[in-house]
Design brief:
- This protein has 306 residues and is of the alpha/beta class.
- It is 43% helix and 18% strand.
- α1 runs parallel beside α2 and α6 packs across α7.
Length: 306
């Protein structure tokens, strides 16, 4: 499988060379590196031109005529990628040498998955932190308690860092919704694949995520306790309480995504809601069940419109 790397840059000259070198030093070489620069004012463009001169068969660099911002710049970079597997890449991180090899093996072994993400080590002030990225965002794939990747993404928050994400190239023309900084390109991509059950995960730290003051997009490091509280409340809540939560989430997502993705998210919520409604009704007596069904129908209590 041939590979493309989609990189977006903006005033990233300080760490960019290390990132590019880590991509070039993979055990399985990448075939194409697409870089879209969002009008950097430092030496970023000079760095990119130098790498293109050294590796003209790999590097394709583009300077935006107008500043696009992070979301639309990644949209442009992904849409320019030509090969079978696309890796998203930040400008200031590091790839472990076996990252490409490991992800290609995953796609070969899992033909039913069209996207995958992995864990990351965290680097701050020159030192690797004890907690990994998944630790810091309270994602525990070995301890799901019935919370699938879909549930995490739709109900709790993003767990897919763009620096860890790869996807099969479907030749789809991506159109990300740029309206919310809380829903970046990686979150939108993750939801697209997760609600179709096409998103997998690799429980291995295949990259190093750098934490620093000047990064354009950070990882959600300060909300671990909040995530844990949301997770614990949801897991321990009754079916009726879960139904209320799903209803609230259906309203939340309505204007957050473009095109078919919002329909898929709402369809997922509707499916889960229907399961919970059935389970709840089975705990009632026949009279209570009839009354509850009538009341829900009359008031559209837990009706999810897709």
């Amino acid at each position: 499988m041939k590979t493309s790397v989609a990189i977006c840059t903006y005033n990233g000259d300080f760490f960019l060379k290390e990132q590019l070198d880590s991509i070039l030093e993979q055990t399985v070489q990448v075939d194409e590196i697409i870089v879209c620069d969002d009008q950097s004012t430092d030496q970023t463009w000079d760095v990119l031109v130098d790498y293109q001169h050294k590796h003209p068969h790999i590097f394709k660099i583009f300077c935006n005529d107008n500043s696009l911002g992070v979301i639309k710049n990644f949209e442009k970079a992904v849409n320019l990628c030509q090969n079978e597997i696309i890796f998203l890449c930040d400008q200031d991180d590091l790839w472990k040498p076996n990252k490409v090899e490991t992800i290609l093996c995953y796609f070969e072994d899992n033909p039913g998955k069209d996207a995958v993400f992995h864990d990351l080590e965290l680097l701050q002030n020159g030192s690797i932190l004890k907690s990994s990225n998944w630790d810091s965002i309270y994602f525990q794939p070995e301890n799901t308690d019935g919370i699938s990747i879909q549930h995490y993404l739709v109900l709790i928050g993003n767990i897919v860092t763009g620096a860890s994400f790869a996807l099969r190239n479907s030749k789809k023309e991506w159109n990300f919704n740029p309206s919310s900084n809380l829903l970046l390109h990686d979150y939108q991509l993750a939801l697209h694949y997760a609600v179709a059950n096409k998103l997998g995960s690799i429980n291995e730290k295949l990259g190093i995520y750098r934490l620093h003051e000047n990064q354009q997009v950070g990882t959600d490091q300060h909300n671990r306790q909040k995530r844990k509280e949301i997770y614990d409340i949801f897991v321990k809540s009754s079916n009726l309480e879960k139904l209320e939560y799903y209803k609230a989430k259906s309203k939340y997502w309505k204007d957050k995504l473009n095109g078919d993705d919002i329909k898929k998210v709402l369809h997922f919520i509707k499916r889960e809601t229907d399961i919970l409604k059935k389970e709840y009704l089975q705990t009632l007596t026949l009279m209570q069940r009839n009354y509850t069904n009538f009341y829900w129908s009359l008031t559209n209590k837990f009706e999810i419109k897709t």
